[in-house]
Every structure is written in structure tokens, then in C-alpha cells.
Design brief:
By secondary structure, the chain is an alpha+beta fold. It folds into two domains: 76 residues, Arc Repressor Mutant, subunit A; 159 residues, Chorismate lyase-like (Chorismate lyase, 3-Layer(aba) Sandwich), CATH 3.40.1410.10. It contains nine helices and ten strands. Strands 4-5-6-9-8-7 form a six-stranded antiparallel β-sheet. A hairpin with a 3-residue loop joins strand 1 and strand 2.
Length: 248
């Protein structure tokens, strides 16, 4: 894995970026699973034939990106998608007073479909490839607040079934990580205002035409590879979108 560094091959990126890339490749290949500890800085420095300072800088960036997590006195670990990470890193709907409530999803539909041109482009698929479409009603403090539609490539999640998705014991991203080895590390979102159609209004307990926030999210794994599309309709009568950029 570290032949280029060991042989002193000239690269165009700073050395710590090359080390970061090699560590990331190890994560992609499953060398270190979710929750596993990375080797010590000394062992990593020996492995990649670089200084501990170079290792530390590479690991610092992966920690800042929340791919790795440092635990005082214990070491550095691969981040896991537990409910806390979902709530504070990927979930941006809060009450108007700033309080975050744990989302409670209820599956409404699990369907197999073919990717149209727009979906294929966003998921790096060919038009017509098979996808899953999953609809969830999300409650906050027991009240229906968000209507989600997820689109996933069937090739990337080959044995996924309605039963597996419905009966998972953890978050959706934890399912991706533990069952399929797909670690969602970042998400890009686009927002716009929209009006509730009759079907969505009924599910969200609002009148048809009521204002909703529409969020289009692309969830990505390493190297910005898209793994999930999500469209969310949010009742913002008592909630708002909040994101603290740059917060660890």
C-alpha cells in the first residue's frame, strides 16, 4: 500500500495528504472496521516511513472530517454511525428554540424501480439501472414532521429487503456501515421552499398548499462517491433548518 512512499516516489501532494489517502484506502478496503482502533502513531509512522508529525497531521484531518474519532487515553478509532452521530452531524432539523429531537422513522413503502436520467446522474449510475425507493414518515416528539424518500442503488446494496430495512436495530447509516461496509462520511444538501400536495399534507397533518421545506441530500462515502439520495419534506411551522458549519 505504501510502495510510493517507501520508494521515495515524487508526488504532487504534500506528504501528509498522501498518508491520509493511504489510510483512507485502508478504510475503504476494510482493514479497519467501524469502531476499530487504528495502530499507534509510532506504528503508522513505521508503516508509511514518515515522521510522527506527518502521521498526526493526516489523522488530524480525518478526525476533523469525523471519519476517525480520538478517545483520550485510548487511541484513535473508526467513527461509528450511532444515534448521537446522526443527530449532531447529519440531522439538521431543530425546534424553533434550537432543541434537537431524536427522529423516529416509520417506513411507508419499499419499492424496486429503475433509475431515470436525473437519479442515474446523481448516483453515478446508468439510466435504467435498478434502484430501491423507500418512503419514511419521521416523527419528532411523536408528531409527524418529515416525509422522506430515499433512493439507493440495488447493485450497491444487493441483498437489501424490506424486512432488513424495517427491522434494523440502529440508524440507516449504521446499517450501510455494518452490513455493507459503506461509511457515509459527508452529505451535500440543497434546500428550497415548496407547498404541500394533498398526499403529503395528509401525512404531515397540514393543509394542502401549506409551506414546507424541501431538502435534497446526496450522502457520500469516501472519494465523494454518492450512495444515497434523499428528498425530505419538512413541516416548519414549529421547526427550522440549522447547520453549524465547521463544528466538530
Amino acid at each position: 500500500m505504501n510502495d510510493a512512499l517507501r520508494a521515495g516516489v515524487e508526488t504532487f501532494a504534500p506528504l501528509y495528504i498522501e498518508v491520509k489517502r493511504l489510510i483512507t484506502q485502508g478504510l475503504i478496503e476494510g482493514e479497519w472496521q467501524a469502531g476499530a482502533a487504528l495502530p499507534s502513531e509510532t506504528r503508522l509512522a513505521q508503516r508509511y516511513h514518515v515522521s510522527i508529525g506527518t502521521i498526526r497531521r493526516a489523522v488530524d484531518e480525518l478526525v476533523a472530517e469525523q471519519i476517525l474519532v480520538r478517545q483520550q487515553g485510548r487511541g484513535t478509532f473508526v467513527a461509528t454511525h450511532d444515534p448521537k452521530r446522526l443527530l449532531f452531524h447529519f440531522f439538521h432539523v431543530v425546534r424553533n428554540d434550537g432543541v434537537k429531537e431524536m427522529p423516529e422513522p416509520e417506513m411507508l413503502a419499499f419499492e424496486r424501480d429503475r433509475a431515470d436520467t436525473a437519479v442515474a446522474r446523481r448516483l453515478n449510475l446508468l439510466p435504467g439501472e435498478r434502484v430501491f425507493r423507500i418512503r419514511n414518515l419521521v416523527r419528532l416528539a411523536g408528531e409527524p414532521m418529515i416525509l422522506d424518500e430515499l433512493v439507493l442503488s440495488q447493485a450497491r446494496f444487493p441483498d437489501l429487503t424490506e424486512k432488513i430495512f424495517r427491522e434494523r436495530e440502529a440508524t440507516v447509516y449504521a446499517l450501510y456501515q455494518t452490513r455493507y461496509g459503506i461509511n457515509v462520511v459527508r452529505a451535500a444538501e440543497r434546500l428550497r421552499a415548496t407547498a404541500a400536495e394533498r398526499a403529503s399534507a395528509k401525512l404531515l397533518n397540514v393543509r394542502p398548499g401549506a409551506p414546507l421545506l424541501e431538502i435534497h441530500r446526496t450522502a457520500m462515502t469516501y472519494h465523494n462517491t454518492p450512495v444515497e439520495l434523499r428528498t425530505s419534506l419538512v413541516n416548519t411551522a414549529a421547526h427550522e433548518y440549522w447547520s453549524d458549519f465547521g463544528k466538530a
